[in-house]
Amino acid sequence: MNPCQDNKALKLMVQEALPHGKNGKVADYIPALSFANPTTLSLAIFDSEGTCAAAGDISEKFTLQSISKVIALALALMDRGEEGVFSRVGMEPTGDPFNSIIKLETHSPSKPLNPMINAGALAVTSLINGNTIDEKLGRLLAFVHELSGNTSISYNSEVSESEFKTADLNRSLAYFLKQHHVLTGNVEHVLELYTKQCAIEVDCQDLARIAFVIANEGKHVESARQIIPLHIARILKTFMVTCGMYNASGEFAIRVGVPAKSGVSGGIMACIPHGVGIGIYGPALDDKGNSIAGMKLLESLAQRYQLSIF
């Protein structure tokens, strides 16, 4: 059965997954995220018929955080090509936390292992074309508008400022990368762009539409326009499978088995190849930084509708 035609079951699965959030806590190392309601859970699914089914607190908005790494990678690859990007960042998963510096110090050359960890994402964001921060951010937002079909999406200035002021670890990662010529240019400018990128604000329906384009080999459903080149859409999904759920990606692949990317705001974007996009928001996190209720909800969806790609 198509999950978009099964609204009653979707609402029930949200209700069943919601209590799992009590075992987690909202992110508080970015002060502005600490005000999120931990009892919130929402789900949206968008399919190739242009149908969007939703359940839960669907009006709740949240910032993309690390989910934005997928979108920035797509844009950087379109701007610089695979050689330009992967000369600065690797393609291998890591078992370390997303903000770890240890692999930079122990690997040679000292480039980030993949674009889904913070060091790799900073390197990728620095590669987005544009002469100023505003120009680069404008291109990134325009890309999000095109993917989602929602031109009102912007970034949350309160969250971005909070994140920028407390970005000491990311700042140290960025300066390390600059020392080793992985990142060029002004570190503070890269950090400002990165924190604004992470603070792009959506709801779960916007996220499901973005996820659909990636799932659908880069093609928009209504216009049939190829927004993301096919080979890049496949690269994105591969990184989402291997690195998308932080250092829980292996277990997630076994339990759920779909390309997905989480963020510490509690969002999860899942892309079912060839035409289903899923957006989830549940801000109570586990110790890896993934939404507890959102993970449980995705596991239930995968089992009920046989979504695993494996």
TrEMBL record:
Its EC number is 3.5.1.2. GO terms for molecular function: glutaminase activity. InterPro entries: Beta-lactam/transpept-like (IPR012338), Glutaminase (IPR015868). Coiled coil: none annotated. It catalyses: L-glutamine + H2O = L-glutamate + NH4(+). It holds the Pfam family Glutaminase. The keyword Acetylation applies. GO terms for biological process: glutamate biosynthetic process; L-glutamine catabolic process. Substrate binds at S66, N118, E163, N170, Y194, Y246, V264. Keywords: Acetylation, Hydrolase. It comes from the Bacteria. Belongs to the glutaminase family. Homotetramer. This is Glutaminase. The lineage of its organism: Bacteria, Bacillati, Bacillota, Bacilli, Bacillales.
